[in-house]
What does this fold into?
Amino acid sequence: MIRMITLAMILILSSACQAKQHPGAEEFADKASSEYELNQEEVLLLLQEAEFKQSIVDAMSRPAEGKPWHQYRPIFITDKRIKGGVAFWRKYEELINKAAEKYGVDPQIIVSIIGVETFYGGNTGSYRVLDALATLAFYYPDTGNDRSEFFSRELMQFLVLADEENLPVTEVTGSYAGAMGLGQFMPSSYREYAVDLDDNGRRDLWSSMDDVIGSVANYLHRHHWAKGQPITYLANVSADANMELVAKRDFKAKMSVDELAAGGFESTVAVPGDTLANVARFEKETGDSYWITFGNFYVITRYNRSPLYAMAVYQLSEAIREGFEQ
It folds into this structure.
């Protein structure tokens, strides 16, 4: 807690202790003390340093994942992002191959996730993570899906992480949701899945490409990625297809390919009939497209719950792989 104590002294000297406190801050500090043995007064002083950001509330109210597929896809599947992925892969080929082999992950997926998340490190976020998480923990917008408790837990995890990894808690920047580094890890994911692949005693998801690439690979590995196995194939849909089979929120592969085919959704690429799969719908400008999704698709949705995100990662990865192999 040395860093937090030092910060608390600075805040006291700057009269920050007189600032108005966030609603619910006292309860949060009590929990930080009882569950994580953090100093209650230091936590309150840190929270006084956290600034409410209306732009964060606005961004959370209109996430990109709320767009239809035909508007979401052009954000990520671009010539510039494909070429950037090929260049990134070639620059770090040895390291990517090392991580892919160590964790049993397809290399193009590692590259694609970093590409989708931060354009290969070009945009890791400009919000202070303390501000982002405090805003969403204490002032979550009325979207009909209150996630303030989730962000409260992430704020708590961030304070613990900052102490563990010796991070400057009031200086760390990330996305409007509090995700950090080239792979955009939330604090709990950072603590759980980040790895010190360069063996220097720190898990650095900003400056150490070893740690960045290794951590993304480990995240996928820990969620049971199956290397070399399919992610998704376009489906042929019969006129009388059972639309009740189309996944709405849970994209875990739980029906066999044969069962889905009997229900009117047949993969355009042959796979063993007992392979577990699911069906996802994607909204085009005219009509919809349906895809048979497999276990690896579900794994990508553990990184980001949106099927749009998973499809963007998949399609970008295929384009990058094709470019890399040319």
